[in-house]
Specification:
alpha+beta; 15 strands; 25% strand; rod-shaped
Length: 522
């Protein structure tokens, strides 16, 4: 995949992900705002109902006290009777309609403790309405006309007048009282709680009543302090002109938790899907980058393998051409030399093919890893023997420092020998000049540990993270200053992990590397 196309795909996927998450967060925010608006509306309705109940209870209680005083008085101090009469006659239909009214206005002088020993005149108005309809019916067959008369009357008390008068008296009385004398904390708290429960708001709340001048009253929850940002305000009492005399402020400490609880299901579901989307995007992006990287590594591997095969093939062709030469055919020593050369180069190609096949079989669990008790010191010594000629050829040196008390453990001798050989070859390969290699062993109560230290070119932190990846090599393309195709250390890691061990590297550029293998003793 071309780099520009890869970047374009990543950008488009990122924009899509950000867009999807933004839409989800937008809907979550809308749901939250809607829930907050609903909560505010429910609280305002509850406070409105609560203040209405408080006002009605105060008026009702006061009216009962007035009625009790009037019932004790029995008769009014003074009374006045007023009458009126309205009559309408329709000559065309011979119908006469009469409406009469009688009003009895009784004046009671009230004095009581709840009036602060003041005296007031309280009027009670009772009205009677009489209605009559008289029709004169005359028929041609009758000598004398008939009268059809309808009469009815009703009496009623003018309760609206009583209510208005009660309100005037009540306002007069309340003007001389403090707010806590009109309403108790207990009643206010219970009424607010009942109205909130009716609207499914079961939350702890704090309240306080403040005058129109902003001063606090004794009606409040404990040490309540007004918070204008989070409190809900509603007028509690009004003066005769309709102006607010007191305001009720209510706070909900757990308001946010209540609002979130109302949308918790959709919120959790949205967050879950956002999480799934992020995970899916991250996985896809990771796979894209990984596949691109694998593609590049495999391209490098093919280039390296091609280069590795070119030399032995060219050598074999030259040897065959030389053998065909009649002069060479007569010289048995030269023929044998060229045959040996062909055999060595063929063995070299076979070894490289075997490395590739070995990794493939290992990944498919097709390699026999039968285990037996082996001595790791013997394994290391055997591996050193395998690479001794390479060391001698480059005038290098391998030193062993065996300090492990216990060196026997269950393992596969063949593959563990290959592990050590590959690690030693890697140390030789990446050493400039004569390779100086040290092999250390030690043991703990649970592990056998061996380290292979070289004084080679070392590696960067980034290379250390990738060094055990299959096909990975620090050199790119057709740069072949160091032979290989990135399979040796991948094989080492696979075999060590099959033995339930771990392998890691410590290195510094220009100062060499230390490869450490930990294998369990049991």
């Amino acid at each position: 995949m071309r780099k520009k196309m890869f970047i374009l795909i990543v950008v488009l996927m990122s924009i899509s992900l950000i867009g999807i998450i933004a839409v989800q967060l937008y809907w979550i925010n809308n749901a939250l705002e809607s829930k907050q608006a609903q909560f505010k509306n429910d609280v305002q309705k509850s406070l409105g109902a609560a203040t209405e109940r408080i006002n009605e209870q105060e008026i009702s209680t006061f009216q009962k006290k007035i009625n009790e005083i009037i019932s004790k008085e029995g008769l009014a101090g003074t009374a006045e009777l007023k009458q009126h009469l309205i009559q309408q006659i329709d000559t065309s239909t011979n119908i006469k309609i009469t409406v009469g009214g009688t009003f009895l206005e009784e004046n009671f002088k009230l004095t009581s403790d709840f009036l602060n020993h003041d005296s007031i005149i309280y009027k009670r108005v009772t009205g009677r309405t009489d209605f009559s309809k008289l029709s004169l019916i005359k028929s041609p067959d009758e000598l004398f006309p008939k009268l059809d008369e309808q009469r009815f009357s009703f009496t009623r008390r003018y309760t609206e007048f009583d209510r208005l008068q009660t309100l005037e008296v009540l306002n007069f009385v309340n003007s001389k009282k403090l707010i806590h004398e009109r309403l108790s904390n207990k009643d206010l708290n219970n009424i607010i709680k009942e109205e909130l429960v009716k609207r499914n708001i079961v939350l702890d709340f704090k309240y306080g009543v403040y005058g129109s001048d902003g001063l606090a009253t004794k009606l409040k929850s404990g040490y309540y302090t007004i918070d204008t940002k989070d409190s809900f305000k509603y007028p509690l009492f009004f003066d005769p002109l309709g102006n607010t005399t007191y305001n009720l402020h209510v706070n909900f400490p757990d308001k946010d938790d209540h609002i979130l609880a109302g949308i918790s299901n959709i919120l959790l579901l949205s967050l879950f899907f956002i999480f799934i989307i992020i995970i899916a995007f991250s996985s896809s992006l990771y796979q894209l980058i990984r596949q691109k990287k694998i593609s590049e590594i495999k391209t490098d591997f093919i280039n390296n393998m091609t280069h590795e095969f070119k030399t032995p093939i060219a050598t074999i062709n030259l040897a065959l051409d030389s053998i065909k030469n009649p002069k060479i055919l007569g010289d048995d020593s030269k023929v044998l030399r060229y045959v040996q050369m062909i055999r060595d180069e063929n063995k070299r190609m076979h070894s490289q093919v075997e490395n590739v096949l070995r990794i493939s079989r290992l990944e498919k669990n097709q390699i026999d890893l039968s285990k037996e008790t082996i001595d790791l010191h013997d394994i290391i010594e055997d591996a050193i023997t395998h690479v001794s000629l390479l060391i001698e050829d480059r005038k290098g040196k391998i030193s062993t420092h065996f300090k492990a008390i216990v060196s026997e453990l269950p393992g596969n001798q063949f593959h563990l020998t290959n592990v050590v050989v590959n690690m030693l070859e890697n140390a030789i390969k990446y050493s400039e000049g004569a390779p100086i290699i040290d092999v250390y062993t030690e043991s703990t109560s649970k592990f056998f540990v061996f380290k292979i230290k070289d004084s080679g070119i070392g590696m960067s932190k980034n290379v250390q993270k990738q060094v055990f990846t299959k096909f990975y090599r620090e050199q790119k393309g057709n740069i072949h200053d160091v032979k290989g195709h990135g399979l040796g250390l991948a094989y080492v890691k696979e075999i060590v992990e099959k033995h339930h061990g771990t392998v890691f590297v410590e290195s510094e550029k220009g100062k060499g590397s230390i490869f450490t293998v930990k294998l369990p003793l049991i």
